[in-house]
Model the fold of this input.
Amino acid sequence: MQTTEVSSLTTSPPPTLAGQEILSVDGLSLSFGGVKALQHVSFSVEEGSVTSVIGPNGAGKTSLFNSISGFYTPSEGNVNFLGKNVNKIAPPDRAAMGMARTFQNIALFKGMTVLDNIKLGRHAHLKTNILEALFYFGPAQRTEAALRREIEEKIIDFLEIDHIRNSSVGALSYGLQKRVELARALAMQPKILLLDEPVAGMNREETEDMARFILDVKEEWGVTVLMVEHDMGLVMDISDHVVCLNFGQVITQGLPDEVQGHPDVISAYLGSGDVTALRKKFKEGR
Amino acid sequence: MRIGTAKENYTADEALFDTNIQRGWMIALMIALFALPFMTGQYAIYLVCLVMINIVSTTGLNILTGFTGLVSLGQAAFMGVGAYTVAIMEINLGTPFLLNLLIAGSGAALVGIVVGLPSLRVKGLYLAIATIAASVILHFIFANWTSMTGGVSGLSMPPASLFGLELVQPDQVYWIIMPITVLMLFGAANLFRTRIGRAFIAIRDRDISAEVLGIRLLRFKLLSFAISSFYAGVAGGLWAYFFRVITPESFPLLMSIFFLAAIIVGGMGSILGGILGATFMTMVPEILKMMVGVLSPIWPDAVAVMSPVRVVVFGALIIFFLIFEPDGLAEIWRNIRRFFHLWPFKT
Done:
């Protein structure tokens, strides 16, 4: 276990966990030419939970995320969000429905300040039209002031990034950039947050901070989290449900402990040609 | 040296000019703009008007290319659409100039939207080629739709009139050009304080993640084309009122390249950059011309010998600025400001 203090926070599931599924993936298949990136992937995400998708490199985790957020059109199967089939809905409209995501390789806008990046998150919910924008009168000014207040008081304060609000994002450390990306996703007023490797490349302290933020997002904001992550310590500590992919298929899914101990998961990560197992077999055979 | 600026609410922090010193300078600039026609001669006002028309068009291109990242070489043709619209309306209908300019801008915006349609599929140099094609087509229309545009000989139009007074001389047309330029610059600056401007920058920096944030790419790319060509159309309309003779050769492809050079020299993605770039590109050749003129009493052959040198110097200056400060004149200006803010401490 990597972070004991984090795991103590998740001893019991929150009472808000209604057990209703907010997002479900049903028999999803995706292929590029002859390559089958995903094959009949099915799982569901309960409202108010943290669900993690794990699997070795190339297992199809990012393809799955891209299918959920609408970049790839699945060749078979459905993605249902809020009880509605969203297969035919374009990414911007999925965002407006309350689907927010962060990217594995940070996708912040380098030419803007941290504050403007976060404000961008609210885009789909703002209504300012072109005339109001050019003259910046009444509604535009009120909208911007209200947005600024909310971002300052709820998001920037919560993620502890008030010292960098006016910096250009290009100048920030990796960990802070990841945090700004989370801030931007939260500004989208999401119902579900898709995090693609939220702690990749972070040191231990930054990872612990991020784990704390993810849990707070779940418990204080009531936002459901679906994440792809390689850091097993983090996954096992904060997840309510874990889905393990390999070669585009779901090997197993369930509670973190069940998945962690599952023989197929171990062999997916370590390979079936495990040295100790081989040595044991070799000895027995002799 | 400035230590910090205290703000009491978020609206104050979001203001365009957030310190009293900045507001003071702005007021001083406005007074100067109003006093200018009374203090200088026609030639100086002529240059100022020309600079302002170029600033409007350059700012339009900056919104499209500098802020949204869509390279366009159609700006001059869009100006042509505006200029012809104004001329045709002024000649045939005699409607008030403000209405004419508004319709000129809107007409150019519509053309801009059509030209922008390929932008969802093609980017960068490919889009530039597509806009060149559009400007060639527009040039063809200007030259051959004789019943409307007067063909190759063009149109000559009556001057604008304000409260019954005809605006003929540069210091008279100035009273149309100056307020509209100021208004449009404030409009452009305001745009980038709202969701629309932020969406443009997002599309420039990473269009895929912009989509995930709920930005509809085609709609906002076309909106950017529309706003940019609206600026071009209005600039073209002002141009028409200023020169009052419009021919198909008034808006050559070279002029589009001039505007592109202006935003690169001035600073892409900065309103100040558009202003500085357009001023630089318009004024430096004039200043070099004047310098040659000053030399001529001492050196009678100066004009003949130095004229080609003038062009070379102009080109060399552009290259010098690009190497010295790739982010343009706006960045040089910001560095100067930063220096004075931190002075006397080391920057």
In short: Residues 162 and 281 of chain A are 58 Å apart (CA to CA). The interface with chain B takes residues 69, 71, 90-93, 95-96, 100-101, 103, 107, 109-112, 116, 119-126, 128, 130, 132-136, 140-141, 143-145, 148-149, 152, 184, 188 of chain A (CB under 8 Å).
